[in-house]
Design a protein that fits this description.
The protein folds into two domains: about 55 residues, no CATH class; about 190 residues, Ribonuclease E inhibitor RraA/RraA-like (Glucose Oxidase, domain 1), CATH 3.50.30. The radius of gyration is 20 Å and the shape is globular. The protein has about 240 residues and is α/β, with parallel strands linked by helices. The N and C termini lie far apart (about 65 Å). Strands 1, 2, 3, 4, 5, 6, 7, 10 and 11 form a nine-stranded mixed sheet that branches.
Length: about 240
């Protein structure tokens, strides 16, 4: 495969560069631009610059403005209050089976977020060892509609975990679940490749087909809220700003 001069230049570009929110350009951006592929430098940097500055609340507001839905699963809460975003890799299993968790780590792509649907939360399918293995294999985070454990370790670990419950007990390494298939949780259909952003407030899921529109709307929300904060600093009350006074 030949290497063009543009490819060489892109390799020398700083992936740590960030753009001020007011100057972010999301033209033609797609969910694929979450990863730098050697040719999407500008789109990648603009997108990452936005995601580093926005919250799950702002993404939810943006998604709601497009679909009249929140994109949230409110029963899933942050375990260690860390922020993450990326594409989802789905898995579904029973609470008796933590073996599917190990298989999901091997099946996901670098930079993915593992998303588990579990049939109950009476046993944990994720904990310290799985988090350590996933982190070392390039997985960005784990989200569980079910239980996690080992909170003594997870609370201080540099690996985001979200779950709907936690408990000390676990099942067995059965490996009987499914990977990469559509799952449905509380009325939300989730597919491998969909986008997720999670932080201290919870998680928001955006179908990949609506990713670009949602990011544009998120940028608008961020800019609008920055203007409101500026007005408040200038002496206006929130009631005045939103027309209630």
């Amino acid at each position: 495969m030949s290497i063009s001069p543009k490819d060489v230049l892109n390799k020398n570009k700083s992936l740590n560069k960030r753009i001020d929110v007011e100057k972010i350009n999301l033209n033609d951006v797609s969910v694929d631009d979450l990863r730098f592929n050697g040719k999407n430098y500008d789109k990648h940097i603009n997108l990452i610059s936005l995601l580093e500055e926005v919250s799950a609340c702002q993404v939810s507001d943006a998604y709601n403005s497009i679909t009249s839905r929140s994109g949230t699963i409110q029963s899933i809460k942050p375990i260690n209050n860390q922020k993450v975003w990326g594409r989802i890799f789905t898995a579904e299993t029973s609470s008796d089976d933590w073996g599917t968790s190990a298989q999901a780590i091997d099946g996901a792509n670098d930079g993915d977020i593992l998303f588990f649907k579990v049939d109950s939360d009476d046993k944990a399918i994720w904990g310290e060892l799985a988090s350590s293995c996933a982190r070392d294999n390039g997985i960005k985070a784990t989200v569980i509609y079910g239980s996690a454990r080992d909170l003594d370790a997870l609370l201080d670990m540099d690996y985001p975990v979200f779950a709907s419950n936690f408990c000390p007990n676990a099942g067995s390494p059965l490996g009987l679940g499914t990977l990469g298939e559509t799952i449905s949780i509380e009325g939300i259909e989730i597919n491998t490749g969909d986008f997720l952003l999670g932080d201290e407030s919870g998680i928001v899921i955006v179908p990949q087909s609506l990713f670009a529109k949602t990011m544009e709307a998120t940028l608008a929300v961020k800019i609008k809220e920055a203007g409101i904060i500026k007005d408040i600093s200038g002496g206006k009350t929130l009631a005045e700003i939103v027309g209630l006074k």
